[in-house]
Amino acid sequence: MDEKPLNILIADDNQSDRMILCAIVRKMGHLVCEAADGNEAIEQYIQQKPDIILLDVIMPNLNGQQAAKAIKALAGEDMVPIIFLTSLQEASDLATCLESGGDDFMSKPYNKIILQAKINAFSRMLKMHNTLQKQRDVIRENNDHMRHEQQVARAVYDNVAHSGCLDLPNIKHLLSPFSIFNGDVLLAARKPSGSIHILLGDFTGHGLPAAIGAMPLAEIFYGMTAKGFLMADILREINLKLKRILPVGYFCCTCMVNLSFRRKELEVWMGGLPDFGLYQQSTGTIERVKSSHLPLGVLSSQAFDAETKVFDFLPGDKFYMWSDGIIEARNADSELFGEDRLFSIFEHKDSDQYFDKIINDVNEFVGESGRDDDTTLLELSMVEESVIGKVDIDLSSGAITGPTNWSMTYTLRDNTLRSFNPLPVMLNILNDVPALRNLSGQLYTLMAELFSNALEHGVLGLSSELKNSAEGFSEYYRLRSDALKVLSDAFVKFEFDLRPTADGGKLTITVEDSGEGFDYSHISPDSDKNIAYCGRGIPLIYSLCDSLTYLEKGNKVKVCLSWQTQFEE
Amino acid sequence: MSHLNMAQIQELKDVMEEGFNDLVLTYLQDSDNKFKALKKAINANDCHQVAEVAHSLKGSSANICAEALSALFKKVEDAGRAQELDSVPYTFEKIQEEFTLVKAELQQLK
User: Fold this and answer.
1) What pLDDT digit, counting tens, does each position of A235-247 carry?
2) Which residue in A20, A87, A108 is closest to B15 by CB distance?
3) Neighbouring C-beta atoms of residue A217, cutoff 10 Å
4) Which helix (H) or strand (E) holds A524?
5) Cα separation of A222 and A407, whole Å?
6) Do the chains contact at A23 and B19, CB–CB below 8 Å?
């Protein structure tokens, strides 16, 4: 036998019978434990945890059937095959044995071959059972782990792809995801002009793979809407982004609308979605609005068409958007809810009931059979702008917001020069200018160079030539530390001046120090020729800004940095 | 004619190997004790006890290859279960005869 031996419990009140069984089982290479009645059998089961039990039916004290019941209850999910030993002949007696938890029986006189065959069969079954149990545990563990991860990811997702202003009084919506993550995305935001942008997206598939594309989509939608971009620009940007990040065959069926209160118009772009409904109160009719584009994420920027349709949208008019989960909802007979059923709802007179009626009708239709896709529904009504109030734009981000025209002077004197690093404070203020955020690494290096020049060469008058040798290096730092101790009437003054330009902005930094200055007449505006002035890091500074000018006796330097505004993605 | 199934006995010897003598000894001792218990139960007219002890002896006798003896115990067990012990004293006598012969044969085999 190449397998691990099993532990087999033999419970029989007849000692000679037990001896025969023990001999057969031991010959097979298994281990044996013995019991002489039902109580002992239970005791042995608890102590020895046998793999298989051979159990005599008729035993004193507690009989085999009672013992079997108790053992099966103790075993719980573990499999413990019980083979009843019996010379009972009646079919009804055998049936009682199986009912009490027996898995098989074997009659006296014991036959070696049959017993061995039974033990081998149960041994195989046990192995299979244990494998299954282990696999089940692994699956359960993995599943728990995955759900936990998804829930954490969901929290992040919800922060990014939040629902914006879907709670406005002129919007009714329903979002019911099929799993933790939703392949449908529904976003709403107000433009600075007060108009409302709404985007309904249905990504290929559902769950996490479908939802992940919604994050960049929402970022672009909210970011650009807040900055006042037009629908066409936003769609173009989203299309480009999705085209770049989504795998082939994955895309986002999208409808984006712009509701303009001033023009009383609804501008619609639709790609890859089923017909939507536009209800006009004046005529009491519903108009089907059709997709005229491919979904987002399919076409290249060159081929992408952002052309929109414009409809009159007067107070009382309503626009209905839905994902295909509504139309493709199935009943128990696998019939689809379908567009005909959906549009027939609008034959009803009371337009205030449409939204609830769609939900009810779909739920009734689906009945007990349950949903198998994400379902999303939205009703957008035209109202007077006063009903929803003024726009409240989040100014915390955006390329055209933030301080763009200001100046500031920051002077560091004696003690402060000795121990304080002014760079983080200055960088923080500059970072309030969104356009400078992308340049913060460059700005840091630039200001660090300017500050060390002003302090070490300007205020302290140290010569950079010392740094040419190793001894000189330590001498330099010794002198620097000594000179810092006796500072008086010293200063370094930073002056920042930020002004907007036609296409961006310009930052001028002037740094003045209390030192003697130096002869800068040989410095060439052509940066390559200034390598010799390594001590002042001039080539580096040149490379980081547009211009560098020394002024007066050389204790004042002016650098300029300009940029063109780029809208963030 | 042998009172033991000799083909089965050979198999049993193969299984038990050196344990065979022990088995015979255990069987004979155990049976002696149970005989006493059976006789007591018959005298006390305790049908349930008669059936239980006869059932046990029937099984162990079958396992030791004493088929005729096992069949006689089955008769007693059946009578006990039927609560009809009239025929039992007669069967019990036959059992004693048969057991003596079985015992002799078993002892020869050792």
Assistant:
1) 999 999 999 988 8
2) A20
3) 27
4) none
5) 31
6) yes
Q: Is the pTM of this model over 0.90?
A: no
Q: Is A167 helix (H, G, I), strand (E, B) or coil?
A: coil
The strand pairing partners of A172, in sequence order, are A379
* Residue A28, number of CB atoms within 10 A of its CB: 16
Non-local (6+) Cβ contacts of A22 within 8 A are A10, A32, A34
Where b means 16+ CB within 10 Å and e means fewer, A468-485 reads eeeeeeeebeebeeebbe
Q: Retrieve residue A503's tokens.
A: 């296409």
Reduce the DSSP state of residue A470 to 3 states and report it: helix
**For residue A285, what is the DSSP state?**
E
User: How far does A30 lie from chain B, in Å, by closest CA?
Assistant: 14
Task: Enter the DSSP assignment of A242.
Answer: H
Structure tokens at A378: 């939205």
CB contact under 8 A, B22 and A19: yes
User: CA-to-CA distance for A275 and A562, rounded, in angstroms?
Assistant: 49
Chain A contact probe: residue of B63, B75, B81 with most A CBs at under 10 A: B63
Phi, psi (deg, nearest 5) at residue A8: -120, 130
Handedness of CA A97, A98, A103, A109 (dihedral sign): positive
* CA distances in angstroms from A302 to A237, A239, A272, listed in the order given: 12, 11, 19
The answer to whether the CB atoms of A20 and B63 lie below 8 A apart is yes
Coil vs helix vs strand at A189: strand
Q: Which residues contact A100 (CB under 8 A, 6 or more apart)?
A: A64, A65, A66, A68, A69
A174-203 pLDDT per residue, tens: 887 767 777 888 999 988 677 899 999 999
Pairing verdict, β A104-107 and A82-86: parallel
Record: contact A87-B17, CB cut-off 8 A:
no
Which secondary structure element, helix H or strand E, spans residue A8, and what is its range? strand A7-11
**What is the ipTM metric for this complex?**
0.91
